[in-house]
Amino acid sequence: MREDIREQDRNIRKKAIIDSAEIIFYRKGVEATSMDELAKECGFTKRTIYSYFTSKEEIYYEVVIRAYQKMNVQISTEIKDHDIVSEAERLKRIALILIDFNQTNAAEFKAIVDFENKDIDTLLQNEIAAKCYEEGQFLVKVLTETLKEGIQKGEFRDDLDIGQTFLAMWSALLGMAHLMNYKKEYIKRYLEVDVYESVDYLFHIIIDSIRKEEK
C-alpha cells in the first residue's frame, strides 16, 4: 500500500515537471531554457528534477511522447467512426484533427513539429528519442494506409505515389497550421478569408489532384 502511494506521488511529480517543461519550452525553446528556469517554473529544486530525469533532453522527449500520444488517440478515435463513407472523407477528418490540435494544443503541436525537424539517425541512437519517433510513425501509417485503401477502392489514382502524396499533404497542413498561428487575424482582415474555410478549400484541392477520374 505504501509503495503504491509512493509510486503515485512519483508519477504526480513527474507529470508536474513535464507540464512545466511543456510551457517553458513553448515560450522560450528547449535550447534557451536552463534547468534553473525549469526548476523555478515547476517549483522543484534541480536536484529533485534530476532524481526523475537524467537531462533536459530526456524531459523534452517526454513532452514530445505525450504530445504524440494525445494526438494519436484523437486520430485513432476519429478514423474508427463507422459513419465515414469514403477514404477521402477519412483524410479530411484527419486533416481537421491536426489543424484543431494545433489550435487547442499549441505547445504540444510545436513540440511535435520541432522534433520532426531533428536528425533521425542521431535520434534513433537514443532509446527515449526513438520512442518519440515510433509514436510519430502512427500518423504516417494512418495516412499512407488510407491512401492505399483509397487506391484499392478506386477512389484515388492507380499511379499515385504514396510517399510523395503523404509529404505533400503533411507539408500543406504544416503550412496552414503556421498561418493559423501567426497570420490568422491578418488573413481574416485583409484577405477576408476564414482560415478554417481555407483548410477545407486546401483539402479539396489535394483530393481533386489524387482522385481517380470517372470514365
How many separate domains make up the residues?
2
Shape descriptor: globular
Number of helices: 11
The top-level CATH class of the largest domain is Mainly Alpha
Quaternary organization: single chain
CATH-level-4 superfamily name of the largest domain: Tetracycline Repressor, domain 2
**What distance separates the N and C termini?**
69 Å
Write down the CATH topology of the largest domain. Tetracycline Repressor, domain 2
Order of helices and strands: HHHHHHHHHHH
Radius of gyration: 20 Å
As residue ranges, the low-confidence spans are none
GO molecular function: DNA binding
DNA-binding region: 34-53
InterPro entries: Homeodomain-like_sf, HTH-type_TetR-like_transc_reg, HTH_TetR, Tet_transcr_reg_TetR-rel_C_sf
Protein name: AcrR family transcriptional regulator
Task: Summarize this structure briefly.
It contains eleven helices and no strands. The protein has helices at 2-28, 35-42, 46-50, 56-79, 87-104, 106-116, 120-123, 127-152, 162-182, 184-191, 195-210.
Itemize the secondary structure elements and their pairings.
Layout: H1 2-28, H2 35-42, H3 46-50, H4 56-79, H5 87-104, H6 106-116, H7 120-123, H8 127-152, H9 162-182, H10 184-191, H11 195-210
Helix pairs in contact: 1-2, 1-4, 1-6, 4-5, 4-6, 4-8, 5-6, 5-8, 5-9, 5-11, 9-11
